[in-house]
């Protein structure tokens, strides 16, 4: 029983963004890189409407609260396809770079380099915590080292929550 994924090809347009390529498929969402003509790149995260849409709405609400250079930024949310929606999508800033786990494996990082990346993630988390947001899934795969300046950016707030949020966890585990 495979989860539904949007089958988008390069050049297809979603809300004015031209899809460039598939970035990744997780247990919850499918992410594509897309771009406005002549503009910046964005991540389009697609979640099937028959999935836990409350989680996506919570992630959107979380990201609306947060603005910091070490946190991914949300831009918009919508439905795809517009005529007969099957997916909810989030448009976020695309962090051009490498996941922290890959970045660390391909470089001989000094203790100073490691401390800098940890400090950058901690700065982002401090902003999130000041807004009452908890990420709940901080790991190397959810940190991207931005290519243009080498700074760490925390992404994927899909498991996150905040103080006023409705509980969306299902099952016996908290």
Automatic annotation (TrEMBL):
One Pfam short name: Pkinase
Domain Protein kinase: 17-174
Gene3D superfamilies: Transferase(Phosphotransferase) domain 1
Top-level taxonomic group: Bacteria
Signal peptide feature range: none
InterPro entries to which the protein is assigned, alphabetical: Kinase-like_dom_sf (IPR011009), Prot_kinase_dom (IPR000719), Protein_kinase_ATP_BS (IPR017441), Ser/Thr_kinase_AS (IPR008271), Ser/Thr_Kinases-Pseudokinases (IPR051681)
UniProt-listed PROSITE patterns: PROTEIN_KINASE_ATP, PROTEIN_KINASE_DOM, PROTEIN_KINASE_ST
Keyword set, alphabetical order: ATP-binding, Nucleotide-binding
A GO molecular function held by the record: ATP binding
Positions of ATP binding: 45
PANTHER family registered for this protein in UniProt: PROTEIN KINASE DOMAIN-CONTAINING PROTEIN, SERINE/THREONINE-PROTEIN KINASE TNNI3K-RELATED
Name under which the protein is recorded: Protein kinase domain-containing protein
Organism: Archangium violaceum Cb vi76
